[in-house]
Amino acid sequence: MGNDQRTELQSVEAALEALLDGVLPLGAERISASEAAGRVLAAEVQALLDVPPADNSAMDGYALRAAEAGQVLPISQRIAAGASPQPLAPGSCARIFTGGEIPPGADCVVMQEKVEECAEGVRVPGGIEPGNNIRARGRDVRAGIRLLPAGTCLEAAALGHLAGQGITEVAVRRRPRVALLSTGDEIIDPGRPLGPGQIYNTNRPMLKRLLERFGAEVVMAISVPDDFEATCETLRQAADQADAVVSTGGVSVGEEDHVKHALERLGRLDLWRLAMRPGKPLALGRLPRSTRDGHAGEARFVGLPGNPVSGFVGAWIYLRPLMGALLDSPRLARLPGLRARSTFATSTQARRHYMRVKLEFGAEGISAHAFDDQNSAVLSSCVEADALAVIPVHSEIRQGDIIECLWLVEN
Ligand SMILES: Nc1nc2c(c(=O)[nH]1)N[C@H]1C(S)=C(S)[C@@H](COP(=O)(O)OP(=O)(O)OC[C@H]3O[C@@H](n4cnc5c(N)ncnc54)[C@H](O)[C@@H]3O)O[C@H]1N2
Ligand code: MOO
Predict the structure, then answer these.
(1) Above 0.90 for ipTM, yes or no?
(2) Where is the MoaB/Mog domain (predicted)?
(3) What residues are in contact with ligand 1 under a 6 Å CB criterion?
(4) Strands (DSSP E) found in 276-401
(5) What domains can be seen in the chain, in order of their start residue?
(6) Which one-letter DSSP state was computed for residue 40?
(7) How many angstroms separate the alpha carbon of residue 306 from the centre of ligand 1?
(8) Fewer Cβ atoms within 10 A, N terminus or C terminus of the chain?
(9) Ligand 2 pocket check: which of 274, 302, 310 to mutate, most ligand atoms within 8 Å of Cβ?
(10) How far is the CA of 352 from the centre of ligand 2 (A)?
């Protein structure tokens, strides 16, 4: 273990490259569009229909020929949304409601507030342009175009777009199956009273929620005793069920830290000890799987340190892109970056610091406020964080400097 401790720290980029190297997208499955919220499209969806399907009115008012504006026009028909209009009789207008189909012959709609009702019909002001208040057929979507690209996360607007085409079934990527292991004999689940030296498992619900928001399904969430053989056995079981095995704790240098050694015995340790804070002892590797389901016969392994903030940051930096690769979703693969003015001063040494910050969007631009206590055991710094400020190695940041931040958006 002495040699391990002298191992040079690896960069986050090298770690991400090793983690994502050779990861293949998971297979596709067809599911009902009504169940597809949060899922990722496995193939592009082509538009089948024009949306809207016909020219229609954007206002409650009167449809007419623009050239016939500036006079009193009798009302020759009434068109509610959903009705089929008749061709517009010359020298007349049609009463029309928002969403109503424009009658053949009409080329504009005048909103009702602009006309004056009279015994003969309505007095329409002059100066009306053709096209006014008409939503043209296909303005939103034209049949045959790519409606949504593969890799789209099906969130609210995309689900609406699918429904707008009458689509009831979609091909989505199978959800990545993740096994979540908690190490540490001192860690117990809420629901039991705390004994001496014990603490509650904060990492499990936190990581489960993050993984789910990154598109995964947590298929196993168990605690592993601080014992080498038991750790090996649990890792074996986990790898057989999952595309990714995520553990917390047990990756540092103490005698009770078995995860890294178990990984070395069963599979392959790609990287350990990273130039990042928090998360230095993070371990990345692969575990062989005894069962195959059409996917590569190995599960990726991410051993997060036990400190809750190290788990939180590690999830955003490693688990989100890993889920992105398994789901073939470019949007998940990379967190959006932004530049903000730092309201704090700090300095770094050999590790890049991912500081939890709160962003303030003001008239003068974006400010990043760091939480006071940035220790990796202080989870309160994450609760209201909406970005990670990325402070490069060996740097000195002064208040007012522009810093790079990663915006913590879930998908
Ligand atoms: N001699 C050294 N000691 C440590 C080093 C080092 O380089 N040399 N690195 C430190 C750093 S940095 C970190 S981070 C931690 C990581 O240690 P482990 O991953 O082995 O994690 P544990 O020791 O198991 O736990 C650390 C800490 O977190 C608490 N914990 C663990 N699991 C949970 C959980 N599910 N919910 C809540 N809290 C949890 C645990 O009780 C410990 O307090 O190592 C440093 N040590
Ligand atoms: O890497 Mo540890 O997470 O700095 O505390």
Answers:
(1) yes
(2) 179-325
(3) 182-184, 186-187, 199, 201-204, 248-253, 257, 278, 280-281, 305-308, 310, 376
(4) 276-277, 283-288, 298-304, 337-342, 346-347, 352-362, 365-370, 387-391, 396-397
(5) 2-27+174-333 (3.40.980.10), 29-50+147-173 (3.90.105.10), 56-135 (2.170.190.11), 337-407 (2.40.340.10)
(6) B
(7) 4
(8) N
(9) 310
(10) 11
